[in-house]
Amino acid sequence: MAAAEDIGGSFERLADDPLAIAADEIGDRWVLLIVCASQRGVSRFDDFHRELGVARNILSNRLRKLTELDILRRTPVREGARRMEYSLTDKGLALAEALMPVRDWSRAWCGDDELRARLRLPLRVRSDANGGDQGLDDVMPPRRPFDN
């Protein structure tokens, strides 16, 4: 019984921890990558999809979540249009800035290409030496036969 009480106590402590609260709201890799892509100027659904390679249903869910959290603002491309553009709110801009040290930390400490391949993360930056964009197939490790 003491172990269960210890676990419950730690959950109560975590509920008051600002980092735990932030992780609960935005602790999904797609959410973080969407915020970073938005900061780089990506604003339309198809562009997020092309840039990140995220499944459309997941992207739709995360864009809705970020809009509900007031991290992204959703506006029609033009009056009466069905297509939407997404942009960072002040809250989103603050989050994007807060993620920069995490990106720096990752560059310094998470450079293991084997780990990146297992996670199916890009092995290198998306732009080539001439400043042109590469497709995700150019930067993603190949799928193994047992991958879905």
UniProtKB/TrEMBL annotation:
Q: Among its keywords, does the record have Cell cycle?
A: no
Does Cytoplasm appear among the keywords? no
Recorded hits in InterPro entries, A to Z, give: HTH_HxlR, WH-like_DNA-bd_sf, WH_DNA-bd_sf
Coiled-coil-forming residues are none
Q: Where is the HTH hxlR-type domain?
A: 17-114
- Alphabetized Pfam families for the sequence: HxlR (PF01638)
Superkingdom in the source lineage: Bacteria
Query: Which key words are in the record?
Result: DNA-binding, Transcription, Transcription regulation
Any one GO molecular-function label of the UniProt entry: DNA binding
> PANTHER family attached here?
TRANSCRIPTIONAL REGULATOR, MARR FAMILY, TRANSCRIPTIONAL REGULATORY PROTEIN
- This chain belongs to the protein called Transcriptional regulator, HxlR family
Origin organism is Albimonas donghaensis
The top of its lineage is: Bacteria, Pseudomonadati, Pseudomonadota, Alphaproteobacteria, Rhodobacterales
